[in-house]
Amino acid sequence: RDRDLGEGQRNDVTISGRGGFKQVTADLLRKVEVYFQDQLSRSYEFNYEEGAFHKLLLKSIDHLGAEGTNFYTHRFDYFDEARHADKTYKGYDNAIDFNTGNDNVSGGSEFLGQGDVSALGGSLSSSVGGHLYLGIGPFSIKKPEMLLEKKKSAGVKVGYRNSKSKGLIALIDINGDGLQDKVYKDGGSIYYRANQAGPNGITEFGEKRHIANLSAISETKTDMFSAGVEVYFTVDAAYNHSHSFVKSKTYFTDVNGDGLPDLVKNGQVLFNHCNDVGECSFSANSADTPSPIGSGAVDATELVADFEQLYQEQIDKAPLTDTIRRWTVPYDGQIQITGDVALIEDNSLERQEYQTADGVRVALQHNDTELWTVEIAATDYTAKIPENVAAIEVKKDDVIYFRVQSIFDGAFDQVAWSPDIQYLDVPEQPILDANNLDVYHYNAAQDFTLGTANGMDVNMPLDGTVHIVAELEKLQTTSDDIRFVLLNNDAPVYTQEVTWDQIGAISLSQDIEVVKGDKLILQVNIDSPIDLSALQWQPPQLFYTASPDIPQLTDEQGNPLIKVDFFYSYDVYPESNLDIPLQVWEVPQTGSYTLSSLLALSPESIANLEQPLTTTVFMTVKRTNQLVAKYPIEIVNGQLFNGSVVFEATQGESLFFEFSTLDSNMIDQLSQIDVSLTGAATSIPTALYSAA
What we know:
Blueprint: E1 14-16, E2 23-25, E3 31-36, E4 39-50, E5 56-64, E6 70-75, E7 121-136, E8 153-172, E9 181-186, E10 189-195, E11 205-210, E12 219-232, E13 236-253, E14 262-265, E15 268-274, E16 280-283, H1 308-317, E17 323-328, E18 333-338, E19 341-343, H2 349-353, E20 360-366, E21 369-376, E22 392-394, E23 399-406, E24 415-417, E25 420-423, E26 441-443, E27 458-459, E28 464-474, E29 482-488, E30 491-498, E31 504-514, E32 519-526, E33 535-546, E34 563-565, E35 568-570, E36 575-576, E37 585-586, E38 591-597, E39 600-601, H3 603-607, E40 615-623, E41 626-636, E42 639-641, E43 644-649, E44 654-661, H4 666-669, E45 670-672, E46 675-677, E47 687-690
Parallel strand pairs: 32-35, 44-47
Antiparallel strand pairs: 1-2, 3-4, 4-5, 5-6, 7-8, 8-9, 8-12, 9-10, 10-11, 12-13, 13-14, 14-15, 15-16, 17-23, 18-22, 18-25, 19-24, 20-21, 20-23, 25-26, 27-32, 28-31, 28-33, 29-30, 29-32, 33-34, 36-47, 37-44, 38-43, 38-46, 39-45, 40-41, 40-44, 41-42
């Protein structure tokens, strides 16, 4: 053998299992020696040359005598159909046009307009995922928030991504004639065109034929789990370990061995059968085919690897997380919670075919104590009424949690739940704040406002020009002015001021030149709390109109192909120094009044700051949903500059006096929060509101 002679291993090692066992051909026979009475009599040497596709061929056999003299040589010639005389490959013949039929199979904008789906195959994929990083930074007494900054931090991360792919078209021999047919989805049905390019055939697919009882071509699901560590100091570093599981839920395979591809979907088999005129249909009964499958069972022991350990590891890395709605108690008192909860019924085909949905567990919790919980089965769509929540004693800053948790499988677990919270033992006539909102009542649906955290940006994926369309409608007067602002890398590119008494739509239609990585922010700046339900958005749109990276940016109808989800944020003021609702001040007589701020910084709090405090606090005078007066109080390098504002008021009307700031630490940094008012003999009720 070649290895006995110290030669390297052959390059065309073959492995075969055709005999029912593993057979490896890894050596070359290089020499045969013939002995007589322990004396070398003859020997034969085998010589090889490389043929087409690097396969070794026996070139010659040398017949040698006892002394090694070459008696003669047998040489072999081969017919080489793959190569020319100079050993270059003949390759493919000239291209021939093949008529695949114009069926307009397309994935829409997901393919970025780069052509319809190929007849060779195509699918439409979607994915969703997330990345959670938990780290800690250096601690500083003067700047404790550094603990929460990602820069100069180290910690652990976990990630998850779920991808789904559905086949739109496949090249497969659906009718069993040995030729690959075009099978494709059109609307909600599957069709095929028979390949007619057999011997003496033509290079085109045949007429469009419907395939009965076939609902899908292929479906694949991929779950990726990852975990690791990340460090963000002088040099950023990360280590990540991930596992991906790919599950083919729907695929073609010949289950009963009749030469026709059957469809396996969610563990169930649909058997293919075609008649003499090429009409194909699928059914769950193999008796409908020429090759029925008899009764029996398959012993699958050791056919599939045991992934239990890895499965448990992924469960540990990606534990179930509750979906939570949280309500922070504003004042001491007793509350009542109403509002039933129900699993939302999904009538889609996907839900009907889904086998592992297992329902949800819902709970209502006060701080660390669960007050009520119930499990809702996967097909139980009846409403559940919370119990033991008719009279709950609460303190300011307590938290009420409304929790929804998947039992184990996270699919089809949406619920409808709109809790309603009402303080008990309060005046029957609602007490309203400056925004005409009941201070002792909260309703999840009516009081909910959709918006992102302040400062969240949208990252631009490409160089080019983007067009932004947005419309904000102001439905009524508000208790403060608003500013509609579009930022690119924190620099304003569009600003529009809207006063408190203006009503109507604010429209934005703007082209912006961007480079990859630019950060766009759409936000509404507000200097004090207002009723945000008075602001209604048409969903903002952002799409590319030009880019050097993508040649086609619109489809045949002129619709944009590259669109980016664009969100918006508001300035909100959920924190306050109030222990009871802010009281109104009744104007004693008609005339002019001067309101002066009496704010004072706490020396102890200011001393612990790493940088001198610089911010703005707005002092406002309001009627219900009306702004009467406003004054900005500046704090510059730790120096607070109080001020005053003059306003007109009418006898008997009710006014609200407020301070507001976006500095979330301001409540703790002030030692005095007060105002003085000309002509007022008693103390004036006032409040400080801040961002969270």
